[in-house]
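so my prof wants the structure for this chain in the tokens format not the other one, which i didnt know existed until like an hour ago. anyway here's the sequence
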Amino acid sequence: MDVEDMLRKLGKTSQLNFENDRVHVKEVEERINLRIKRKGSKLFKLPIPAIVTLLAITIIIPSWMGWNISQQKGMNSVTMHSNLSIENNDAVNNIIKILHEYSDIEVNDISNSQLTNVFLSVEKVVQLKTNKGQIDVAIFPESVDVESVKLVEDFSVPGNVTYTFTGLDIKEESTPLKASGPNYLFKKNHTLFLTNNSAIVKKLHDVYYLIEVHDEIFHSFGLNKDDYQYYRPQNNSKQEFVESENNLEKLSLESMKIIRSKLKKGDLMPAIFVNKVGTEAIVIYKSSDKTNHMYKFTFESTSEKWILKDNLSVQGVKSIPTN
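here's what i got, hopefully its the right format
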């Protein structure tokens, strides 16, 4: 099943889960006021009430993502819990950070990979042990084109699955490699991801698609993405949400009131980014006609309210997968 098929299937599921009427939207607001924390959907495209629901949940429950919000001098300071990391390897650490921020895949351990001695020009190879299964990661120099790499598997001998790769120079004596079953390959940014769990590959497709959209939107408005932190709920985070007086629920309610009437069926799910001192936030999304939208809010300590300061729209480039 390709990404578009998956999105189509998820879109149908979302229509069963969310009632498309204004009463449901009102119920969402009431639940927010009561601070009922619910799990968020991983869908990108939803009917309007579903998008609004996810927007609210995304802002309110950063605890699932492992964030702490604490009050300092009337502001919301943002601190991210430490994750596993590899010293002096920014590329691997960045992958772990991306998985943590954009998906429910949590890395529990890092170990040696069976791919370590396979490729001639590889820079780093590790195995990420996650809550969804193992992922072997091979990172190559930017000069190496991994898009031409193919996974070749041999199922001819019952109970003895083997595989190798084509499209890159490999150490012939290190292959074929043994496997317990089929493997799946994902390629992105000079990096190969190998796993025996097809669901992980689907998640990787979704994650990197969403990152590309967010990067495009930030660039289109002349914003530096590194100045902000992305907030979304994660189902598997065990970190607690430390709520300050100036909490994100206020931002959630205020942004919902302003944005919900603008959203249309087929638009991409809005995303919340907050600056590192918690005094500024932007809500971004892409509409089905490729238009990029940005709403900028600032927190005023005197009134303890989030105030809309700017609202811009520009024509984007990247398309949203259609049903």
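also thought this was worth mentioning. Residues 6-28, 35-43, 56-83, 233-246 have pLDDT under 50 and may be disordered.
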